[in-house]
Amino acid sequence: MAQEEINKAVSGEYSLGFEIDIETDVVPPGLNEDTIRFISKKKEEPEWMLELRLKAFEKWQKMEEPRWGHLKYEPIDYQSISYFAAPKKGPESLDEVDPKILEAYKKLGIPLEEQKQLAGVAVDAVVDSVSVKTTYTEELNKHGIIFCSISEAIKDYPELIKKYMFSVVPMTDNFYAALNSAVFTDGTFVYIPKGVRCPMELSTYFRINALNTGQFERTLIVADEGSYVSYNEGCSAPTRDENQLHAAVVELVAMKDAEIKYSTIQNWYPGDENGKGGIYNFVTKRGICAGDNSKISWTQVETGSAITWKYPSCILKGDNSVGEFYSVAVTTLAQQADTGTKMIHLGKNTSSTIISKGISAMKGQNTYRGLVKIGANAHGARNYSECDSLLIGDQCGAHTFPYLESKDIHGQVEHEATTSKISDEQLFYLRQRGIDEESAVSMIVHGFCKEVFSQLPMEYAVEAKALLELTLEGSVG
Amino acid sequence: MKILEIKDVHAKIGEKEILKGLNLELEPGKVHAIMGPNGAGKSTLSKTIVGHYDVEVTEGDILYKGKSILNMEPEERALEGIFLSFQHPVEIPGVNNAYFLRTALNAKRKHEGKEELNAAEFLREMKKYLEMLGMKADMISRSLNEGFSGGEKKRNEILQMLMLEPEVIILDEIDSGLDIDALRAVSEGINMMKDGKRSFLVITHYSRILDYIKPDYIHVLKDGRIIKTAGPELVAQLEEEGYESIEEEA
Predict the structure, then answer these.
(1) Cα torsion at B17, B83, A465, A278 (round to 10°)?
(2) What's the CA gap between B225 and A464, in Å, rounded?
(3) Do A425 and B74 touch (CB under 8 A)?
(4) Which among A226, A437, A458, B173 could bridge A257 via Cys, Cβ 3.0 to 4.6 Å?
(5) Do B74 and A449 touch (CB under 8 A)?
(6) What pLDDT, on a 0 to 100 scale, did the predictor assign at position A235?
């Protein structure tokens, strides 16, 4: 079915696109060149961007969907997805934001109006693919920091976009990255100038709001020489029945002496206990430590989505550069996660740390997949990997696939892996002290995740703990 | 009025019956020592009282303050005031010792309708007891029992006992693995808890601990039953003649 539709699209028989009224808020399902032209026009993009999108689309059509993940799901019908949706209203200020959207933020504990006042947090909220609001721009402007939607950046900073977009994740990097390159609707762009330490945590909250709308975000963060930025990305989606595709791309560039800290809380709708519904999350995240002494640190807390396919990676090109990956991935209900990282050591004395904590409960399946690659010139490269799995109950599973490729005989690589069950002995000990079973489980789980949570910014760590508790509620006993 | 009454309890672990009609009464304010050879069922007795998942009670009843506790969850028994100092306290990585103990204490306070302690109030209390037990201040921030020495683990059990203020205190081989200083500190902690109301059940293999914690009664446990109850003078006889010499009382 999907192939037939694609064939139609390729042959030009499938015509919906350009007759679509540009005033509509949602394009009908389906993907062809016209859909892409529509998106580009809707975003008021320059011609060069449209050309790049069309090129990506052309390549994507020749690519195969990867199936090597330890994941089971029905094939995705890419022609049944609608590739663009804008919110019903286009608000000028916070007062004009749809009350329902604000309400959803409140439920997530992140009311925009409070966040405006919250010390040091600027929010570029993305609701259904269009930036609703960007705050704190003025404060950031003073430092010469650019923090805006990717659509604005394409219009306002074309030189930076041309230089860096696709420079870390090439448009044909993989099937999902190519799809994203063709149809991405919005996302975030951050540029930190030379020597500037970003004075606040930058945050973007994503939500999927309209039924059947694929979410294709694109984020690009460039930290120029000697700069620092900490960026937080958090997600949540409301309950729905149909599987939704989410294929984001994140690119990070750290120049000489620069540092980027990227933290994620992912809480997309996980589907029900039979695996019905839920988000399919196929994400490509990669950073390059382009200059000497640069550092990129990924921290992720993954609790949502029916399917997670995600490997935030670091290319350690500069000498003495550092890559870090701290991850907590929780799979409960019938969730499946295949996640991990790639650390590519190219420069001398580069070092990387991988701390991965997988928690499986109910029928959840959790896979760690990580690659440590040490190039021929990466003398003195070091890696430390620790992959721990925690099982709650006996229907879930944990799997570990560490890969190591070393071309430098002096490279130091250490890998430790453990799998444990929450022991009855531990639970009993806590209960004998008067702590009820559910609290005892969450206490043990928090202890298990401590190394990762301690990497998160303070308020984010609190949120992550609460989320973990909520996620594992009722999965014990 | 007895604080704890164990009435003709039969209990098994797996398929094996370990307690075979055990009778025991704890009096308020008294120290009861349970002595007996290996495999007599000493640890099973303590597990049975606190509702350990390994143990299945097949016959008999256990009354705490006159009410049966056999259908109560382990945490309910704990909140009501029954405390077990574990022979081998389990390590729980990443769980902060102070955080754990505050959670336990506040659960108890909540159960008793008292105000919960905030972090500062709790720490002040905890530091007081740490000092009393000769424990280092890093006990506040370390993970629960993780990497603790044998002595540190036992002191930490006593710390919890002091702060949770239970009414029936079961000390399972509290003296095992302790050097003389630790033994003294632990004993001081226990003696401090004596208030004329609390009862202690000291389960031990050796009589050494009884030089520090003076028992009021000695019960000899053998093959799943209490076969003799006497005053502290029995300790000397056991030391000299061993358990073989004890005949079951009619």
Answers:
(1) 30
(2) 51
(3) no
(4) A226
(5) no
(6) 52
In chain A, the N- to C-terminal Cα span, in Å, equals 43
pLDDT tens digit string along B179-191?
888 888 889 889 9
By CA distance, what is A429's nearest residue in B?
B90
- Cβ neighbourhood burial of B30 (10 Å; 0-12, 13-18, 19+): middle
Residue A355 to residue A327: CA distance in whole angstroms: 6
> Rounded distance, CA A218 to CA A175, Å?
15
What is the model's pTM? 0.78
Distance CA B227, CA B221 (A): 6
**Residue A108 in contact with partner chain B when CB distance is under 8 A:** no
Q: List the single best residue of A421, A422, A431 to mutate versus B (max B Cβ within 10 A).
A: A431
Q: Residue A457: which residues within 8 A CB-CB, separation 6 or more?
A: A201, A230, A232, A263
* H, E, C per residue of B46-97: HHHHHCCCCEEEEEEEEEECCEECCCCCHHHHHHHCEEEECCCCCCCCCCEH
CA distances in angstroms from A456 to A257, A328, A452, A459, B202, listed in the order given: 21, 11, 7, 8, 46
Give every strand in the sheet of B4-13, ordered side by side. Answer: B16-26, B4-13, B55-64, B67-68
Task: Indicate which of B79, B83, B92 best probes the interface with A, i.e. most A CBs within 10 Å of its own CB.
Answer: B92
Residue B223 and residue B41 in contact, taking contact as beta carbons nearer than 8 Å: yes
* Residue B171, pLDDT score: 95
A252 pLDDT more than 90? yes
> What type of residue is A71?
L
425-464 in A: which are within 8 Å (CB) of B?
425-426, 428-437, 439, 443-444, 446-451
H helices, E strands: number in chain A: 12, 21
**Interior angle at CA A332, CA A328 and CA A333, nearest 5:** 160
For residue A76, give the nearest of A108, A29, A114 by alpha carbon: A29
Give the amino acid at A64: E
Q: Mind giving me the DSSP string for B163-200?
A: HH--SEEEEESTTTT--HHHHHHHHHHHHHH--SS-EE
Handedness of CA A189, A132, A125, A81 (dihedral sign): negative
The 10 Å Cβ neighbour count of residue A110 is: 20
- DSSP summary character for residue A76: P
pLDDT confidence band for B21 (50 / 70 / 90): very high
Run of H or E residues at A358:
strand A351-361
- Predicted local distance difference test score (pLDDT) of residue A165: 96
Nearest one of A53, A208, A71, A221 to A129, comparing CA atoms: A208
User: How far does A447 lie from chain B, in Å, by closest CA?
Assistant: 4
SS3 category, A138: helix
B44 touches B11 (CB < 8 A): yes
Tokens encoding B152: 């540190």
CA A212/CA A335 separation, integer angstroms:
20
Please tell me the distance in Å from B74's CA to the nearest CA on chain A.
6
A86 pLDDT tier (thresholds 50, 70, 90)? low
Closest Cβ opposite residue B90 in set A425, A436, A447 = A425
- As a 3-state breakdown, chain B gives helix, strand, coil percent values, each rounded to 5, of 35, 25, 35
Mark yes or no for CB contact B104/A446 under 8 Å.
Answer: no
Question: What is the rounded distance in angstroms from the CA atom of residue B90 to the CA atom of residue B67?
Answer: 30
Closest CA to B128 of B78, B192, B213: B192
Contacts across the A-B interface (CB distance below 8 Å): 71
Residues A325, A311: Cα–Cα separation, whole Å: 10
